[in-house]
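#onboarding

Welcome to the new folks! Below is a worked example of what a typical request in this channel looks like: someone posts a single protein sequence, and someone else replies with the predicted structure as tokens. Don't worry about understanding the tokens yet, we'll cover that in week two.

Example request:
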Amino acid sequence: MASPMRSLLTDPARYLQSFRLFLKNSTEHQCMREFVERQLPAVIASIGNGKSTINILSVGGGAGEIDLLILSKLQARYPGVTINNDVIEPSADQISKYKERVAETSNLENVKFTWHEETAYEYESRMNAEKKAKKWDFIHMIQMLYYVKDIPATIRYFHSLLEAQAKLLIILVSGTSGWETLWKKYGSSFPLDDLCSYVSSADIKRILDSAGLKYQLYELPSHMDITSCFIEGNKDGELLLDFLTETCEFSKNAPPELKHQVMEDLRKPECSEKRDGKVLFNNNLSVIVIEP
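Example response:
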């Protein structure tokens, strides 16, 4: 019998709704902000040395929350230098949110934004067709490698676009997170199609090691409050479950046994901790900074 479960990505509106709720319920952006404040300045300390223009490529820039923080650090390090910030983002909705955010932000006079409404693969194909290989001083890929078909090839391609003193920064879930536990066990039961694949920093390290690339790794502790997932019929809980399983309306459509097992495992220490009556899912992230 064909499973009625379908990938959350087949319903872009519900995906965005669940993603925004995930951001609201988690310390995802908070821990990224801390990294940008504390550690990013050292990472970008020499990428623009001797340059009058710095070229930044944001792959999967979303609504720009983190992008603008990164830009503020670049401006602080290289005051007055012109920054070209190109953004690859397939969601028109996210791009319009990004543009609104830029319009509301002061001190961006020296930053020129260009948005490309396309996927990373579409960008690569278009550049190859146009026989262009524009080089960049800083490329970042934040929480987007799950949505590319060929991860090693994608990393190879964007790494090949780095200038001599540039850096490629990747952020994605850590191999020590609850995501790793959940997806290694249930990935084959969830309706992923080819829209999304489960990957953690453990997989990326293997890819980089086999390619002989040099990199630094930083771990960012993070959690998501999933208490509402255990309240029957709670709308927020259902959306968060969709996000955790990348499944559209998981509560309604999952076979009862699968749903029961997933709910059991979400409470276990491998996935979550209980604190002050809340269930906090381990959302630890890794930052990987790759040398040219």
